[in-house]
Amino acid sequence: MMAGRAPLRNNERLVYAPMSTRPRVTMPGGALVAFWHAPNVEHYDYIAPGGGTPQGRVAYPDLQHYMHRDSGNRVGLWRMLRAVDAFEMPSTVSLSLSLLEEQPEVRDAVLERDWEIMSHGISNLRPLYGLSYDEEDAFFALSQRLSEAYCGGRRIKGMLGPKVSGTDNTCELLVAHGMAYVADWIHDEQPRPLRTAAGGRLVSMPYSFMLNDVPMIHARSLSGREFIDLAIAQIDRLLRDAEEDGQARVACFATHPFLSGQPWFHRYLSEVFAYVRSDDRIRCTTAGEIADHYIENHYDEQVAFAARLESEHLAALTPQEVSP
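That's the Polysaccharide deacetylase family protein sequence above. Prediction below.
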């Protein structure tokens, strides 16, 4: 536990201001929409420590579901890369960091394409829920050591928690270990500041459960055609909204090789990449570039605006409306 400071709870970190009134936010290069592709390249323990289970798995021995995911790094990733390479799509890989050691071919494919590495934990079946401060601190230290050791000294800039998990200490520890963004919050179409106890700058990076093959295809049984139509409709609407109100937006397209690397899906993945590459109003970029741009150009202004708004809200309350 941090000495001398009371930990913030996650609901105390939020900085509220509606899109319609907040100061204008731009994206790198002046784009109306910043598009970042987030391939989730994951490791799944055959027998997970602590009993973590992926969606849909059954009791041991669970060959059906384990092998479905295992196929992603054996076959699916390499098919996905054909579409990524064809459209020179920059990607921010949500990576289970154990793969840096255990599957060097995956690591080399990531490094050859100069993908940004976003931590997705050590394994996707080892969530952060319930970790003590010291245990989570050790997790972040190990994450950076793995990246430095296997990625030419590069340090990790952000995280999507394993199974989108975290604790009330996660934001403090992200900053303490040199990270600038977290993708777990999924509550806005622009990066947003997150308060930290020591005042370190941290932003929530818009990720997506909608433009995401697992919830839309695996869980809700959308067809590839339906999923890509939804993705393009959402990006198209973000463009029109940005033109109308001047607020640039972020679109994250999240994939998993065990789904988006399936043969039948290749043409759909190519279609969405071709769509975003054909429009000069869209910048295909990385989560790190979006975070850097936001922190340099907008972070302080957004925090100050939200603080004034909060003061106005409190001043407008009658004594009977003030919660104890």
